[in-house]
Description:
By secondary structure, the chain is an alpha+beta fold. It has six helices and ten strands; from the N terminus they run αββββααβαβαββββα. The protein has helices at 3-28, 80-98, 100-103, 120-128, 141-150, 192-202; strands at 37-38, 49-51, 57-59, 67-73, 106-112, 135-137, 155-161, 164-169, 173-176, 182-186. Strand 5, helix 4 (120-128) and strand 6 form a beta-alpha-beta unit. Helix 2 crosses helix 6.
Amino acid sequence: MNRRAMTKPIFTLAFAALALSACSQAERKEEPKVTGALIDGAAIGGPFTLTDKDGKRVSWDDFKGKYRIVYFGYTFCPDACPMDLSILIRGFTEFAKDHPQQAAEVQPIFITIDPARDTPTRVGEFTAAFSPRLIGLTGSQAEVDVAVKAFKAVAARGADTPGGYLMDHSRMAYLMGKNGEPIAALPVDKDPATVAADLAALVK
């Protein structure tokens, strides 16, 4: 009896079975179809303590158990921040209309990168113009720097303007999980419907 001749087809069948099993597992673990960038597994996010519009101290762990959407910007921003936040909040509102239970588990957060000008009152007025659901946070420069560094955000003083200055910053809306883990960068460069669709795919 030719043992080598028998071993080859048995090995081939076993390999095919393993491959089929691997494909089946891959299908079960298939990542959700989203427009934004998936950032799960990235070293993004971390503890911070800042101040809300009422002067109350707020820490990252205070949001534990909720999904969080985090956007870094500043209230004197002439264009990018208002545009991004408008798309983000309109998308979130659309998502909340269609998925109220899931939306109740999501907390949108705005963190200023310009604490020298953005007082708690000013940040509160700014976020209220978009939605009462949007929490605005500020703090000392050192406290803000901790949050900026944790999220790998960009924040630096830019060009001077009449009566003030601009800030250079990244334009990313981070969707973070219930344990503070990174999930995705929401597509605020698109439109509200696209943001709503990504939220529906990612918030379970």
